[in-house]
Amino acid sequence: MTDTEPPSDEQLVDLARNGDDGAFSELVKRYNRRILRVARNITNNAEDSEDVLQETFLKAYTHLDRFEGHSKFYTWLVRIAMNEALMKLRKRKTGKVVSLDEELSTGDDTVTREIAVWDGNPEDQFSQHELRELLDQTVSSLPDGFRTVFILRDVEELSTEETADMLGLSIPAVKSRLLRARLQLREKLTRVFKKKGENAFAFL
Amino acid sequence: MPSCKDFLRELSDYLDECLDPSTRQELDRHVQECPSCWVVLDTTKRTLKIYKGCEPQAVPTDLEDRLMAALQKRMAEKKSPS
Predict the structure, then answer these.
(1) CA separation (Å) from B16 to A33, A99, A142, B11, B12?
(2) Which of A92, A111, A130 is the last residue of a domain?
(3) C-beta of residue B2 within 8 angstroms of C-beta of residue B37
């Protein structure tokens, strides 16, 4: 390590375990945005996501000894955040069971209706802020079981195995939900981004 | 030759590059010849790209302050348990 390189997560974790609270604060600064995004995307509720953010880092600090280093530190944080967020989600939906471990749909929701090319690059046409709002809104419209899988796999970039393990799902269930989530998002975003007057091939 | 439905069913594994080479080759051929599946593939790729590329929003200052205050309290408790 040279003087200019920032310390790795592992180095900061080691320092924090040896009582260096500044090192833990550095980890908080490094990941608080991403944990807040996970919390928002899973709970779909601003107040709950703030609680999840706080609880995640307090629990991580308190139980730092339990982090065994088999996974990345960030994956461990996401696991804590997911547990907290799913608890909040279940509480909000008392009466309605939020089940992440049963089949969500028997219908054929891999049907694609919007088959149109996009009009240029959305990244060039929308500000980061506008794009973020649109993406958040779109992902929040997915069913809970699809949304959680999509967030872990495609936004937080966890592996299929890590996602399955975290959500208590089988690997085929993760894959099937991910496919449906991706296709539903594609469908919804195409409605926004497609070239005017395009819906060239309405079959499949 | 796989059908469009076969292509859609395998789309995730195709994107994640976890198909065996012969299935991949068949799907490659399908997508070259089927404009609809080409569009679905392209727009799904772009969907994932904008999600992955979207930077998370900064934590609002007041929320970050509350988080750091709660953490400092916990740190102090750990150092001098009453």
Answers:
(1) 26, 26, 21, 9, 6
(2) A92
(3) no
Residue B3, SS3? Answer: coil
Kindly provide the ipTM of the predicted complex, given to two decimals.
0.91
Structural domain containing residue A179 = 101-204
* Residue that the structure tokens 């960030």 belong to: A74
Question: How far is residue A193's CA from residue A165's CA, in Å, rounded to a whole number?
Answer: 35
The three-state DSSP-derived secondary structure of A72-98 is CHHHHHHHHHHHHHHHHHHHHCCCCCC
Q: Is residue A1 part of a domain?
A: no
Say whether B67 and A34 touch across the interface (CB within 8 A).
Answer: no
- Give the Cα separation of A97 and A74 in Å (integer): 29
Residue pLDDT, tens place only, A160-179: 999 999 999 999 999 999 99
Count of A-B CB contacts under 8 Å: 117
On whether the CB atoms of residues B72 and A62 are closer than 8 A, the answer is: no
Buried (b) or exposed (e) across B37-52, using 16+ Cβ within 10 A?
bbbbbebbebbbebbe
Q: From the CA of A33, how many Å to the nearest CA of chain B?
A: 6
Q: What percentage of chain B reaches a pLDDT higher than 90?
A: 85
